[in-house]
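Kindly inspect this chain:
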Amino acid sequence: MKNSATIRKITYSAMFLVIALFLPFLTGQVPQIGSMLLPMHLPVLLAGFICGPVWGLAVGMIAPLMRSLIFSMPPILSAAVMTFELGAYGLIAGLMYKAFNKNTGWVIPDLIVAMLGGRIIWGIASYVVYAVDGGTFTLSAFIAGAFINAIPGIVLQLVLIPLLVFVFKRAKLMPADSAAV
C-alpha cells in the first residue's frame, strides 16, 4: 500500500510540474493578465495539498528554475525568487493540510496561510536577491506585487484550489498518506 501511495505521489508531482511549466503559456498571451493570474502557483499549491509538503516543496522549487532554463521565462532573477516563494507554497500547504484539515477537506484556512507564507518568503527573497544584484526592493513594491497586483490570482486560487482538492478527495484520487512528510 505504501508503494502505491508513493508511486501516485511521484506521478501526480510530475503532472503538477508539467502543468506549472505549460500553464503560463495559456495565460501569458496577455502579459498583464497572465502575471496577475499567477498560473504557476495553482499546480504547486495542489501538489502540496494532494502529494504532501515534501512533494509540494519539490515541485515549487523545481518549476520556476526549470521553466526559466527551458523557456527563458521567468527571467533568472525572478525564477530565483520564485523558487523560494513557490517552494514555500507547496511546503506550507502540505503541512497545514496534514496538521489541521486532512480529514475534513476544508482547505481554505490552510490555503490562506500558505498564500500568506509564500508571499512573505517572496518578499524576503526579493529583498535579498535584488540587494545582491545591486537593486532595491521596497515595502511598496512588496505590497503591490504580493497583494494588489495579485488580486485576480488570489481569487482564482481561493476558488479553484478547494474545488480541485474536493474533487480529488471525492474521487478517491488522493494518495493513501497524501499529507505524510
User: Anything to note?
Assistant: Residues 2-27 form the longest helix (26 residues). The mean pLDDT is 91. The chain is about 80% helix and 0% strand. Helices lie at 2-27, 31-37, 41-51, 53-71, 76-101, 108-132, 139-148, 151-170.
